[in-house]
Every structure is written in C-alpha cells, then in structure tokens.
Amino acid sequence: MTWSDFYLFCFIVGFALSLVSFFAGAVHIHLPFKMHLPFHVGHHVGAGGGWRGGLRGGVHLSWFNASTAMAFLAWFGGTGYLLTRHAHLVALASLSISTLAGAVAGAVVFKFMVKLMHSDPPLKSEDYRIEGSVGTISMPIRENGTGEIIFSLAGARRCAGARCDDGKPLEKGAEVVIERYEKGIAYVKRWEEFTR
C-alpha cells in the first residue's frame, strides 16, 4: 500500500461516513445498530465560556466526536492524496500538511456545532407557564361566555379558549392577561385592570 492509497482510503471512509450521517439525519434513515465507543475521550465544552464553554444547561460536546472525526478523515485523506499525486513532496511534508488540513476541517465543524448548540436556548419551566402571559382576544367573550385568546408562549403563537375571570364581556382585540389556566380554558383579565 502506497501513501496515496492510504490517503485515498481515508478520504473515502471519511466522505462515505459523512454522507451516511447526513442522510441519516436529513432523511431519517435508521441503522439497525448503535455505535458507541467503549471509552470516553476528548475535551468538553462546559460552563466556562469560549471554545471550552458557554453552553447553558450543562450540555457537553466532546472535541473528538463522529462529525469532527469524519471531517478530519475526509480532509486529511483528500489533501494527502492530492499532495502525493500532484505536488511530489516528501512523505513527511505531505503528512504534516494533510494533518493540518484535517485538524482545521475538524475545528471548523466543531465550531459550527458549538454555534448550533448556542442558538438553541435551554428549556426553562417559566417559558412554558401560561399564567401571566399577555394576549389579545381574537373571538369576543360574551357575558359569562367563552371566546378565544391569541398569545405567545415560548416563542410560538398559541390560541386557547378564554373566559373573563369576573364574567364581564370582552370585545375582539382587547389586550388581556391570563390569570389562570384550567382544563384548556384561559381565565383572563383586561390589561388595564391588571396593571392598577
């Protein structure tokens, strides 16, 4: 086996596993087995900030994970193959440049994954509490009757059946606060009354 064969093999394995990973995530292909390493390796992104942290909620991401390994293999193999075939460098120089290219590709993938994890805020119970939410009446509430309210909860627009807490009618478009939520019905009060 020559150096170019070794690099080509690394490129094919890295690229093929990247494709399998992409299609497994994008098209939801499920493999009949799960692969796990029997040991734990790599550094973690913790609560400190920067490359080693900043993820909320104790989420950890290892520097050595499947995505970074596949990126390293593909770029290491591809760069090494091109260098041995076309640049005619000494084997040690090709190995060094290929390793650097693979490490840079792995670091770029790792940084991208960290950014994705930063963009998803952690789930907090108070974000999903309906009581105290401000909304607008979308279907008028008649006296002692039921209407409908539209409000925002955890960044999503929601609607629910609504009743006025004191039984008074409320017109469409009135701004209200949800005081309590029972059996799918939001009991509301006018915003002006709530702020007094």
* Lateral arrangement of strands in the main beta sheet: 1-2-3-5-4
Oligomer: single chain
Percent helix range: 40-55%
Number of helices: 4
Largest sheet: 5 strands, mixed, barrel
Evaluate the radius of gyration: 28 Å
Overall 3D form: rod-shaped
Fold and architecture overview:
The protein has 196 residues and is of the alpha+beta class. It folds into 2 domains: 3-119, no CATH class; 126-194, Nucleic acid-binding proteins (OB fold (Dihydrolipoamide Acetyltransferase, E2P), Beta Barrel). The protein has 4 helices and 5 strands. The chain has a 5-stranded mixed barrel with strand order 1-2-3-5-4. β1 (134-139) and β2 (147-153) form a beta hairpin. α1 runs antiparallel to α2 (66-87) and α2 (66-87) packs antiparallel against α3. The longest helix has 29 residues, at 91-119. The termini are far apart. 21% of the residues are buried. The model is unreliable at 37-57 (pLDDT under 50).
